[in-house]
Amino acid sequence: MKKTHGGFVGLAAALTLAIPFAWMPSVAFAAPGHAPRVTTKTIDADGVTGITNASYDGLFSGGNAEQGVAALIAAGAVRVNDVPVPTVTSTGGYSADQLDINGGSGLWENADGTWSYNVQVLLQGSNESYATAVVDFVNAVTLMRGISYRLTLTDGVVTAIDATVKDAAFANTVSKGRHSTKFTIVGHGDGSTDKPNPSTINFPNRNVQGHPQSQNMVLYWKDAEGWHLQRAASKRVVLTVGVDAAGNPTESVDGAAFTDSRLTLQYSQPWNRPTQPFRAMSWMGENKVNAIQWFATPGVTVGFSRGATARSSLAAAVTKARGALDTVAVSAAGDGSDVATGTMWVSQAYHDIFTRAVADAQAELDARGAPNDEYEGALYTLAQAYGGQTGDRFSWLENTYFGSGDDYGFGEPYDTGYNGTGFWTFAQAHLGTGTAN
After folding, report:
1. Residue 209 forms beta bridges with which residues?
2. How many Å apart are CA 435 and CA 437, to the nearest integer?
3. What are phi and psi of 97, to 5 degrees?
4. Is residue 243 exposed (0-12), middle (13-18) or buried (19+ Cβ within 10 Å)?
5. Contact 269, 170 (CB under 8 A)
């Protein structure tokens, strides 16, 4: 995918010449005898306003944020996870042909001399010119809601930008050794980036913050000091789902709206992410759930977990699913003509598949002593099979019973042919047309 150094002297020269003298960082031009006043400003990325936005024009020499960022990159004054953004060299090449973030591709030069970047699944760019890509990349980093980045200002003008990109995962288990700490995850990750599975990483104890424990959401990142691990902040909350007057689904935390992050969640399972837990509640017909809300930066949600209530929630879901199996008739004819008028029915195949889903959930429930996150995963999977919505991406993706997937590239591709339509969802839409016996 990456990273062949293409040279492109003309392009490099064009970028250098395009930056007027006035755009170079002001600290380099302090008048003799003048002691520059150096300050710092920390900005919490909000996912809406990146550093090149016009609202930041006043912080840059010349009054243009986009051109100011380009000038700082050219001066080697922009760093991401302690690594300088590649610059144009005096020979017309580049100081580097890539910048990795947390062990995966962040910014890189392509074989044809264009540049691409992948900061987060919603923050990517491909086959851009160097001059465009590096500025877009820095702006994308500063749009990662859930991180903070630091501006250094000299006499009120930005002279350096430093950002640290953190990734998030739910730790199934955490073990602390004499010199380092490790944590494991559930599953393999979703393949959205080429970053390493954090279960394979040793985090030096000197770089571990907040005493992360098993069943905690954690933040982790790599910089010049190596890998860092941090327990995410948390609080206990009540999650609620419902329907508004227009029939649209609603989601709230303690009765209010919430803000989700834009961090990479490749190694967090869906049931621990910021939005999918609400979908599972809707599928299973749950209205209120006690949960733990996890934060990346203040007010920005990086995930949820049910904690100690996970097993009892799974038990309730299994009971409800068994009730559905007893309630819904099976149409041997496969079209409802042999089922009493108005009675919900499913085909024999649907009934058999859902029976297997319930049995699998019961087996997980019987595994007393399993980590809470594994019970929660079984609940999410059962909820998909019970109430998945036809064609909804979250209903069919990796839905073993009524959807399609391939275990995110770790297994053989499969497609059940049911397009995510759960057992109860199907039954509600199919009523018998026969005569009662």
Report:
1. 230
2. 6
3. -105, 15
4. exposed
5. yes
- CA nearest neighbour of 164 among 124, 95, 104, 222: 222
Q: What angle do CA 399, 404, 405 make, to 5 degrees?
A: 90
Cα 110 vs. chain centroid, distance in angstroms? 25
Per-domain boundaries in the chain: 9-163, 167-233, 307-437
pLDDT digits (tens, 9 = 90+) for 64-107: 999 999 999 999 999 999 999 999 999 999 999 999 999 999 99
Tell me the C-alpha distance between 386 and 433, whole Å: 23
Give per-residue pLDDT as tens, 209-262: 999 999 999 999 999 999 999 999 999 999 999 888 887 889 999 999 999 999
The tokens describing 434, both together, are: 């026969």
Spell out, as residue ranges, where the chain has pLDDT lower than 70.
1-33, 436-437
For residues 301 and 256, is the Cβ–Cβ distance under 8 A? no
Choose among 349, 372, 363: nearest CA to 426: 349
